Amino acid sequence: MANKKVPVRQCVGCREMKPKRELIRVIRTGEDTVCLDATGKKNGRGAYLCLNRECLERAIKSRGLEHSLKTAVPKEIYAEFEKEIEKLETR
Predict the structure, then answer these.
(1) What is the CA radius of gyration of the chain?
(2) N or C terminus: which one in the chain shows less Cβ crowding within 10 Å?
(3) What pTM, to 2 d.p., does this model score?
(4) Which domains does the chain have, with CATH numbers?
């Protein structure tokens, strides 16, 4: 039986290619709102981040999310991401 190919995506923080399941998806919807997509199936332009604070900080500093999503990301959204990543890190 053939091995199933694992989808990989690039983290906008550390720029490493990792399996899609290890990353969290951030999307820009049609209404230009930015939100987390835990399911990975919502419609919208997506970017991926590792589930750790260092990658989020790198993405903020390099503006990686803004470049990938092609829109400005408000500070409140970054604060929300930090809270979500904290929840996910403690699991």
Answers:
(1) 13
(2) N
(3) 0.84
(4) 8-89 (3.30.1230.10)
